[in-house]
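User: Hey, my collaborator sent me this sequence without any context and asked if I could get a structure. I don't really work with proteins. Can you help?
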Amino acid sequence: MPIYNFKLIPYLYDAFKPFLVSHLILFDDSLLFKEMDDDFFNINYEHYGLSVGKLLQSFINIVLLAIIIVILHVVFMVLSKSRTDPNSFIVKKYRQFRWNVYLRFFMLAYFDCTFFSAMKIIEGNNSTGMRKAALFMSYVFFVISIVAPIFLVVLLLMKFHVLKMKEMKASFNSLVLKIDKANKWRVVNVAFFFGRRIVTAMLLCLPITTKYIFLQYVFILVTSHAYILYMVAVKPYQTPLMNTFVLANETFYSALIILIFIFSDATP
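Assistant: No problem. I've predicted the 3D structure and written it out in structure-token form, which is a compact way to encode the shape of the chain:
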């Protein structure tokens, strides 16, 4: 994925690719939308061979995953009806579908879908019926990507006093996983998760000719460093091991951003 609109040295792109493509499932060929194989968001996407057809095919994979989750929900619901023990494995897993499974899927697909939505809105080519339908869905999801995280953060702040209860905590475990419940403002972790992703998705869709193109690099690097400082100062997770793990993960991510910048055509 042509992150920051810079061209990487080819073999380094192949090495870094697993860390750059978010949760997208990318194929070497466009199997479903061959008519869009020669359609690229900008020249930099053509350098990487990432056509609109390939990106749209990746979005279809996200939709298929959503369908599988709904089918599993129905299966667990049917199986749970035959169980009398409220603590049985099936019943416990069925309860997770009320919030956690869908919250986890939303978190997993959030960046990808926001990125696709922003890209389609900016692209402006609505010459066919399918493109017009894609534009409508892009506006729908982009609004959801703004409203839903705000709703979730406000809900967590309002209900934080009951999150210490086992049942309540279990219902929102995807959002507050391993976060120390001693201070409700540690919900900032959730706000940061969504905030960084939506701004990054919008910045990555900036036209390649804009004078603000370096905001892509600056914002992602600054937010990564800010989160490292936050982790060191606040230690928001329940155990020292978890805090160390997340800090190491973010430090690696920050180093990767710097390496991408160094080993690209961003500078002479």
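In plain terms: The longest helix spans residues 129-159. You can pass these tokens on to your collaborator as they are.
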